[in-house]
Specification:
Strands 1, 2, 3, 4, 5, 6, 7, 8, 9, 12, 13, 14 and 15 form a 13-stranded mixed beta sheet that branches. A two-stranded antiparallel sheet has the order 10-11. With 470 residues, it is an alpha+beta fold. The protein contains 14 helices and 15 strands. The protein folds into three domains: 3-72 and 371-399, no CATH class; 87-327, Alpha-Beta Complex (Transposase Inhibitor Protein From Tn5, Chain A, domain 1); 412-470, no CATH class.
Amino acid sequence: MSTASDKTIHVLEQVVKGLPVGTNLALLHLLWALITGSFLSSRGAIFPALQRCGFNREESYRSWQAMAQGTWGIGQLVRNWRSYVIDQGQWQANSYEGYRALAIDVTAFWRPRLRGWKGKFFHGIAQRALKGVGFGLLVQVGQVDGHRIPLLKAIIPAGFQTESQDAFKQVLLWHAQQNLAEDEVAVHDAGASVADMQESAMPRFVLRLARNCTARRNQLPGNQRGRPAEYGQIVRPLTRQHNGNTLPATPPDVESEFSYEGRTIPVHGWQGLVRRDQKVCQDHETYSIWVFFDPLYQKPLVLGTNLSALPNTLFSLYLDRWPVEQVPLVAKQTLGLHRHFVWALLSCIRLPALALLVANILTYLAATLPPLPTGFWDRQPKKRQVVSVASWLEQIFRMITHFMLNFAKSNPIPTTCPRALRLAAWQNHRSDRPLAYHLAFLNLFRPPSDLPISKPVAFCCLSSATFSQN
């Protein structure tokens, strides 16, 4: 087995650590099928993806049952994954002036024909809200060998009764406010507003604003005729056109510049602002607007924040929001979970949540593992015929001699004679026999190395003659 396969399986073992015995092994098989991209070739079908990895029918059924009905939660798996990454010491969180970015994002797995599901989220291509399974992601951003790598902090699924994206956004911001550390800053894109951050009592935030955004001063204008003013003067960061008229930009309070990756970025800032719908009041929460004129882009970047930090710190914090987009991108396109064939309400949440977790694991492993050849054109390629790749994938779990953790499963009861199965099933249907008689009768046909049966047994007369102990 290659070093990459061995390391990958070891990481997956750490992720399912602490789950009930049997469930951990079944989920380990499912996570392996996800991380190898088997769902991409099976077009989102669970059983063909598991069978492609070499698991038989019984093991595939156990993995499906553990995913749909097992006693586990995605929060426990994320905590195990974070503990493993932090203990390894290769991932180091980015920090700017003592602040770390906590990127927030909302993604959805589209299920337009899913019955009984009410959740709808905005689709950028369709330009309207479509039915889908939504998730909120809280991600920390760090460095691994100079590469910017996200690390999941929480996966918040939207319930099947969540009818609007705005309602779920408030729930997500509340979770972010509860999980925000003292040195973390919530970073969001234009999907949230300053009002959303203030309503959720977010202590520190940086978010992108529209280029035509406006705000107000938190002080009354002086020497005006007519009715006494209740609102402060409007602050317009950028010049805009309205009904053929040019509305000039408000002169900035602060003008500065800084160097970033060899280019000089001018910055304009306005401080002590309130929302446009708020009257002048000293009790209102104030924020600042910063406009960055990056020469690498044609349009300026407008940010709103309640932090008292340097402009280059705010610029770097917002750039750390972009790695959160990589998690759903890998889960949908690389792993093939943009479509999946599950219809139970709990399974519709659990399978995409596992895909998001595996996407983060795959990104981390790609940054930490040594580069591997992908063909004869790479340096030091390993000879392997293309036709044997599928069969090689099936043999990986067969080559494992032992697991590092406690993995086990409740195997079917072995028997020495098929005729004993029919006799046991016939004896089970006789209601006049006590339970102790049935157990003693079945123990006659057990191999000597097995332990005697002391619990009730469910019998079924199948062609494969299998028994399952409850």
